[in-house]
Amino acid sequence: MKMQVTAPKIRRLLVPVALVAATAVPVSGSDNWPSFRGNGANGNGSGTPPATWNVETGDNVLFRVAVPGLGHSSPVIWGDRLFLTSSVPEGEEASLKVGLYGDIAPVVGEPPQRYVVLAYDKRNGDLLWQRTAFEGTPAVKRHTKASHTNSTPATDGEVLVVFFGSEGLRAYDLDGNPLWDRQFGLLDSGFFMVKTAQWGFASSPLVHDGRVIIQVDVQDDSFLAALDATTGEDIWRTKRDEIPTWSTPAVFPRSDGSRQIVVNGYQHIGGYDFDTGEELWRLEGGGDIPVPTPIRAGDDGPILITSAHGPMRPVYAIDPDAAGGIDSEHEAMLWFHERLGNYMQTPIVVGDLAYFGFDNGVVTVFDWKSGERVAQQRLGRGASGFTASPVAADARLYFNSEDGDIYVIEAGEELNEIAINELGETLMATPAISDGVIYFRARRHLIAVGGGS
Q: Could you report how far apart the first and last alpha carbons of the chain are, in Å?
């Protein structure tokens, strides 16, 4: 059964009755935050982080420690250890141009870089170890708003995996001992329409059930692969007919008990069998520079995928059991909006609602069961960009501007603003949450915020 939505050029399908009748189970956080946006990229952390803090006075700030170099990779956490990557240039500090602009030119004339992997004690910020993974001139230039270390590490508590694009995929144990190193040659994820516009690499790896999953959508020879986490050897590799993307894959179950790897894309959004790499379903179109990671709405809800560059800004709600080629008319497309999607931020689900944040601070809220848009509101004055994805804990959402202003929003249809907190420096990386503490990887510091209420 289909119905028209009153908004122009937007149509959606009714969600199956069984899904509508299901009670939404709020996503619970884990103390571990093992990869980009935590468990399943859902962005929901554990405990009750504070609503307010003050970096200048130290109120609710547990520690603030300097981090060398420039990096947009997010913190990942296992047990009491927090891991980061960074690119440290020879000589002067790396340049960074943030804000709302459309310059496609890369940074030129940079000096050699040292790519480092850092491990901190999450309780006090002490540096436990540091390893240099690469030293030299990067094979690909970066965007003026990017870093050379955009990809977030991933861990399962046994192996820590870091991806540096053209400079390789490396694995360590949690004490910093090298385990293996894989090289894939030149991986250029720049603008497909202007190939001289090199932007670096940003897709993050996953470690799941003894496998490392990597999505490599580049100018030439894109692929999705599963590697043995203990050896780094290929288990399978599936070719993708895809232009460069900056999205990270996610693993979700299907109703028959099997698992699928879901990826964003432009020519090929899709699901792949976790065990074999076989394509299960595919969808074409959307924004032509996909960045957000697919997420799952609750335990029984649809897969939510969005992108927003070029003529389209879609939001897709897809049945996890989709099969074959699908489009907006297909029965597996549970609902669809053509012009309400995200460019940079991965959306977040809290309870029955899904929150989508655009680059200019506009947040759109959907009922993820029906696809109804229930709220839309701008955070700030539209002068700052928003690149880091939102995170949540204990029914509070934290939206992060590039200027370092953190908007604390009460979960619900009203988008009630509880507080605005300043970090005092640029913020491009998505925060992590563990044990009621939010960890911000800002321009020059790792900042832990906790305590209070």
A: 46
